[in-house]
Amino acid sequence: MYSNRRLQQLPAFTIMELTVSMIVAALVVSIAYSVYFLINKAYLDYRQRNQHFAELIQLDRLLKHDFRNADQLLLLSGQLYAKKGNKRISYEFNKSNIIRRAELADTFRLSVQDKNFMCENIKIPAGNAYNRASPDVLKTDFDIPEHLRVDELALTVLFNNSPVRFIYKKRYSSVDLIKRGIHAIN
What is the domain extent for residue 153? Predict the structure, then answer.
């Protein structure tokens, strides 16, 4: 039955042609995956670097804002408190991070290398008895003792294994300076 019929040949590819095209396709796909993973890794590195930089900029922006807008800056129990009316903001400077507490808590993962609090160009010692005052003093509207007041912060943080120094200064209004009492005459 088959012998009488002539086999029809259909146009098709040979096994060799299919094998070569599959090898070429596999090479193209593997190169595409390699390029994708390289670009993805570069993007993740870029994103992490920029996120760390954005964290540094955000901390700088918030400290500038709080120094500029606070009525008083106080050093209590080793923490910096910004007092603006009924609003209280605290900064806790740890070795591996900085925590800002306001309505919400913000944690900045920056290594603190050095911090100096000053009042009228005099450094406030870290172990000073004044630093051990209770934050409960913030709940009152009475005058805050002069030795708790901060008008300058020099902060050094580690960013990309390099120290970055920030200096923040508080300019008190003349009304605040007149209320101070003993130094108002000078």
Answer: 20-179
Instruction: Decide if 12 is inside a domain.
Output: no
- Which of 183, 116, 118 is CA-nearest to residue 156? 116
Query: Can you give the pTM of this predicted structure?
Result: 0.69
Mean pLDDT of 123-132: 60
Lowest-confidence range among 57-71, 111-125, 142-156, 163-177? 142-156
State how many domains the chain has. Answer: 1
Question: Hey, what are 103's tokens?
Answer: 């309505």
Rounded to an integer, what distance in angstroms lies between the CA atom of residue 43 and that of residue 48?
9
Residue 90 forms part of a structural domain: yes
Predicted pLDDT of residue 27: 97
SS3 70: coil
